[in-house]
Amino acid sequence: MTAPVKKNDQLSVYIEDLTHDGAGVAKVDGYPLFIQGALPGETCTVHVLKPLKNYGFAKIVEIEEASPHRVEPPCPVFNSCGGCQLQHLSYEGQLAWKQKMVQDVMQRIGKLDVTVHPTKGMEEPWNYRNKAQIPFGMNGEVPIAGFYKTKSHAIVDTERCLIQTDEADAILSGLKPKLWALGLQPYDEYTKRGQLRHVVVRKARATNEVMVVLVTKKRKFPQKDAVVDTIRQLIPNVKSIMQNVNPDNTNVIFGNETVNLWGETTIEDHIGDVRFEISARSFYQVNPIQTEVLYKQALDYAALTGNETVIDAYCGIGTISLFLAKNAKHVMGVEIVPQAIEDAKRNATLNGFTNTYFEAGPAEEVIPRWFKEGKEADVLMVDPPRKGCDNALLETILSERPKRIVYVSCNPATLARDLRVLEDGGYKTKEVQPVDMFPHTAHCEAVAWLELV
Ligand code: SAH
């Protein structure tokens, strides 16, 4: 295909769709142009920035006809910060788009004609995140902190984030101006100088407990007492202050060593009536309100009567497993990160469950071995990372044929691909329920229910 547009062309286009990362899509003689900030249904004058062979990028010059779903983004740094992609679309519009996106991939990738329900959204889609990972840096002589620009490591200096908690805001706006007085210099990625790299703030919504993790370049931390005092003043409900040491020249936030600076080493949260102890490095769902909605949906689809054996593949710290355990005879969870399995076992004990079993390893190796050893499963729950289920796992499912599968997915495209494989192997997808775990971002979570026919 040769591009029908040239760099710097200006033209009027109709926006048909949004990409999976929230950019508007227009077609010029079939050639897709991606336009940041444009919404479906809009007509815009655009300026071509980068025409590639099969697709190109353009920017809005003028919105000639605006979408009825366009709203003023409430966050002042929405256009530069990479955290949110959809604040210019009304919340109802976001929910409708997520449903349509899931419907589209079910048809296009999965070749499936299946009911995709309206997205289950939040009543209050703000301040929902329970974890903020705030990079600190320097702008000349001035300390800055906020979130990264899209696909970049440039920090957008921010005082308040509308999807984070007040406690995260207290760090953003309150710690920054005190850093000079504390003698704690932010780490500069370019000069490699300075000490404070990130501050991670986690809040357990159910108990109000907060953990603050200071990620520093060095273990030695002479300002420790003063920094602890400052954080306790900024966040009176803080229960745990930890230090993580990351001396490496890397984009990875955490290093290997984590030490306690003040208070407890864990905080406790509840999902439904299940209790979880969360440590500095534990994986934990970031939207606790919607996690409960998601897990309830998964539980509904699992339709447990109390007599079933359930396998929870990609179980993380066992959150779904424990949520299911009181309705099942036995739950077996498998997860590749050994530390997460340790957390799962501890949390099972904390809640008094005796009908759970957790094992660390790749799901695609552990589950076939379980079956070989004679274990059986009535219901299989899978919640893989974005790349979807491993082929070997899908093959095992098709040969062992558990009668019900509940597939929790954070990537509709790989969900649709895997559903096609399962359908070809004898399963029927009954329905799909999108759940909005990440309002104002383009991320979309969905649960599918499959039965063996
Ligand atoms: N079900 C959990 C976690 C889902 S995230 C929850 O709801 O919280 C996906 C998980 O899959 C991650 O914890 C990741 O570590 C794990 N994972 C990735 N590849 C895996 C594999 N091949 N086998 C088992 N687990 C894997």
Description:
The protein is built from 10 helices and 22 strands. With 453 residues, it is an alpha/beta fold. Helix 9 (391-400) links the parallel strand 19 and strand 20 (404-409). The two termini are 43 Å apart. The model has no long low-confidence stretch (mean pLDDT 96). The strands form 4 sheets. An 8-stranded mixed sheet has the order 6-21-22-20-19-16-17-18, with helices on both faces. It has helices at residues 91-108, 166-175, 179-182, 224-234, 288-302, 319-325, 338-350, 363-372, 391-400, 412-424; strands spanning 10-18, 24-28, 31-35, 43-51, 56-65, 115-116, 131-139, 142-148, 155-157, 196-203, 210-216, 238-245, 257-263, 266-271, 274-279, 309-313, 330-335, 356-360, 379-382, 404-409, 427-435, 445-452. The protein has 3 domains: 10-65, Nucleic acid-binding proteins (OB fold (Dihydrolipoamide Acetyltransferase, E2P)); 99-122 and 287-452, 3-Layer(aba) Sandwich (Rossmann fold); 131-271, OB fold (Dihydrolipoamide Acetyltransferase, E2P). Helix 8 packs parallel to helix 9 (391-400). The structure holds S-adenosyl-L-homocysteine.
